[in-house]
Structures are given as C-alpha cells and as structure tokens.
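Structure (tokenized):
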C-alpha cells in the first residue's frame, strides 16, 4: 500500500517518518521545496502536486497549516477527481472548514 501525504511540515514529516520506519511507501507533496527535500532524504517519494499524490496513493493524509491551504488542496483535487479515494484530514482546523471540504469532495465521490 502507498500512503499519500499532502503537507510534510512539522506534523506531516513526523507522520511520514513513522510510516517509512514501518516500510510503508509514502508519496508526498508540500509547497515548500525544503520540506520536500527533507521528506525525500528520509525515504519518501516526492510528488509535483496534491493531485499527483492522489493519483499514486490508496489513502491520502492531509496535514495543512491553514483553512486556505485545505481549500486550495480541495480545489486541486476537484480538477481531476478520483472517485473512491479516501482522505484523512489531520490538520488543526475548525470543524466547519473540514465539513465544507468534506461536502465539496463528496460531490465527486471522494471521502474525507
């Protein structure tokens, strides 16, 4: 199984590290090139976009710094939806923001 990770900052990189220690394949994306470089150095596979993560993973974890980052990620995923994709949203964000993201993705068959 390949796990996708969108956001490899402090929390996302720790999650990735634990998955990689268990020999789980992890593909990840972040807008910060330094974070991606650290992620790759730890054994992860870099993706060029959130959409590319979704294309390569059976399940996707999101660990994002803001509601705006989650909204941008949702918009990216909506451009090329993959029905039956499961996304686990792990960010520390207001529940209303997460419900709105869930509803938008559900319209194209993506479960958040």
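Design, position by position:
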């Amino acid at each position: 199984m390949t796990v996708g990770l969108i956001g490899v900052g402090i929390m996302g990189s720790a999650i990735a590290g634990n998955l990689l220690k268990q020999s789980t394949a992890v593909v990840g994306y972040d807008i910060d090139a330094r974070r991606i470089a650290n992620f790759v150095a730890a054994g992860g596979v870099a993706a060029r976009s959130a959409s590319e993560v979704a294309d390569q993973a059976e399940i996707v974890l999101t660990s994002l710094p803001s509601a705006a980052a989650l909204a941008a990620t949702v918009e990216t995923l909506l451009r090329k939806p993959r029905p039956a994709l499961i996304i686990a949203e792990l960010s520390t964000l207001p529940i209303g923001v997460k419900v709105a993201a869930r509803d938008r993705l559900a319209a194209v068959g993506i479960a958040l």
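Reviewer-requested clarification: Residues 4 and 46 are 10 Å apart (CA to CA). The longest strand covers residues 2-6.
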